[in-house]
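Researcher: Let's do a round of design. I'm pasting the structure tokens now; please hold your answer until I've finished.
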């Protein structure tokens, strides 16, 4: 897993009728027809498929991630309860495959929240007024960059204003060190090898 320490990038505002899109479920993030693979690459083609695609299969020019100024967005600003619905891990995979490594919203569904951190995505829950401010910043397009500093837990806007955020200390450590569940296990490799060697001597019949 790639370490996350600091990110400066374009933020895409996920809006519906001019307001932050709330209750974006995992089926909306990556519909079920794209779940046939266990590969983590190539899933960006299905990201927000029903939002970004017209009934004839052509792209919707008004969907934020189809707009040229957000083609390289690495940050997503959304409404409350982002990632609700089923527990599919393809949802964070699809976001990562597009290049989004940070999502900011007032609240997140628990399973999606944990899956995202395990895959290297920083999720930042903030009060609605802070999300609204960042939405305004994001609507300026590619010229309005946000800088996320995980170590200092700050978000700096294009005008120099700073917002602080809270993050679980263990999740922060794992992101900054690039440790997923396998990485956490391998960090204890020496202790595991020592235990297994001792166990083999004490219980050779096992």
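Researcher: That's everything. Go ahead.
Model: Designed sequence:
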């Amino acid at each position: 897993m790639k370490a996350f320490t600091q990110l400066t990038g374009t933020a895409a505002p996920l809006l519906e009728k001019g307001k932050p899109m709330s209750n974006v479920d995992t089926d909306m993030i990556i519909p079920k027809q794209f779940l046939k693979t266990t590969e983590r690459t190539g899933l960006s083609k299905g990201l927000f498929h029903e939002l970004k695609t017209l009934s004839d299969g052509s792209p919707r020019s008004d969907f934020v991630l189809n707009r040229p100024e957000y083609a390289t967005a690495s940050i997503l600003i959304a409404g409350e309860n982002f990632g609700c619905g089923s527990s599919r891990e393809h949802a964070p995979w699809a976001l990562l495959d597009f290049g989004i490594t940070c999502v900011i919203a007032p609240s997140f569904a628990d399973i999606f929240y944990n899956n995202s951190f395990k895959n290297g995505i920083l999720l930042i829950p903030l009060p609605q007024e802070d999300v609204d401010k960042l939405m305004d910043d994001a609507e300026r397009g590619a010229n309005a960059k946000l800088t996320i500093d995980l170590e200092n837990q700050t978000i700096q806007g294009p005008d120099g204003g700073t917002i602080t955020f809270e993050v679980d200390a263990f999740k922060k450590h794992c992101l900054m060190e690039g440790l997923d569940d396998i990485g956490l296990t391998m960090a204890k490799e020496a202790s595991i090898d020592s235990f297994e060697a001792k166990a083999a001597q004490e219980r050779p019949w096992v």
